[in-house]
Write a structure and sequence with these properties.
Radius of gyration: 19 Å
Number of strands: 3
CATH superfamily of the largest domain: Tyrosine recombinase, N-terminal domain
Structural class: mainly alpha
Distance between the termini: 54 Å
Number of helices: 7
Order of helices and strands: EEEHHHHHHH
CATH class of the largest domain: Mainly Alpha
Strand order of the largest sheet: 1-2-3
Length: 179
């Protein structure tokens, strides 16, 4: 931990031979960040640098995580098709840690505008939700202090369609969604 100057601090920790750095606005905040980094390291969680894009995560999910779950080849091919055609071209460039509910809402709206069926959009949202939920459990969607990134947490909820269920149970129509 060291001061960068002008009241800015930096917490740094070597994890797996790589220096992981986080910025802070005070010495106290830097100590808290360093404590959170150590805890994440000790728990074996991915600390990373927050630069991983959704596209990179989805590729890892498709090539590493799903094959280890004894999924049939045809099912895996279907997931890959959905990811490559309906998710990555629209959301892939966003950093995983910065993905927000607004990004998910805009993505679904764009898919509707392009004339995709409700079933296709729902299928794509489910694939995205599954991948984001695994990322959340692995704490890949945390902020630099090690706390859950509220935007990414909301993106997980939006991908799960929680907002839609709330409207449906209240009996309210959701624009652009058939009930």
């Amino acid at each position: 931990m060291y001061e960068e100057g002008q009241g800015r601090w930096r917490a740094a920790l070597v994890i797996d031979g790589k220096v992981v750095r986080r910025r802070a606005h005070s010495e106290r905040e830097a100590k808290a960040i360093l404590k959170a980094l150590r805890q994440q390291r000790d728990e074996g969680l991915n600390v990373g640098d927050g630069q991983q894009t959704l596209s990179q995560w989805l590729e890892h999910w498709l090539t590493t995580i799903l094959p280890g779950k004894d999924i049939k080849a045809k099912t895996l091919d279907g997931h890959r098709y959905i990811v490559e055609h309906y998710i990555t071209p629209y959301l892939g460039k966003h950093r995983l840690a910065n993905l927000s509910a607004q990004h998910i809402d805009q993505w679904q709206s764009r898919l509707r505008q392009e004339g995709l069926s409700t079933g296709t959009i729902t299928n794509a949202r489910r694939r995205l939700s599954t991948a984001l939920e695994i990322a959340r459990k692995r704490k890949l969607v945390t902020d630099q202090r090690g706390e859950p990134n509220r935007g990414s947490t909301r993106a997980c909820e939006a991908a799960r369609g929680r907002g839609l269920r709330a409207h449906r149970t209240a009996g309210q129509a959701v624009p652009g969604i058939a009930m």
